[in-house]
Amino acid sequence: MIDNIRHKSVRKKTASRIAAIQILYLHHFNDQPLENSILTFNKYYKKFLLEKLEINVLDENLLHILLKNFDKRKCSYDSIIQEHLSTNWKITRLGTNELNILRLSVFELKFLKKFDNKTIINEYVSLFNNFCGEPDFVNGFLNGILKSD
Is the whole model's pTM more than 0.85, yes or no? Predict the structure, then answer.
């Protein structure tokens, strides 16, 4: 988990992004409706996440925004991801968490545009490092997306 001493409001947003990654992982591997994965997360994992980040609640609004219509927009995200991968990389080479982290970051950078781009990149580089490794890969990828705008 992330060793984090940031302000609680920031940790609530981080917790929401972590929750989204975990929920999407459950959703993928359990092949169940997203709502069921949310319930599973809330029952078994949410308390642990809140304790680790030393907060009482996560940013439920951000979590809802991240998950809303996720399945409906995956093709859009995947198209953007494939377009920005190097010629040696194909989207099918990415693991489930890697792909979902990239999808969420693409959503926040290209569609949501609610937070500063540098903040989003730093957040997802940190999350990618904690869940998948290779922070340089995601850092270069996300900066490439910003340069293409």
Answer: yes
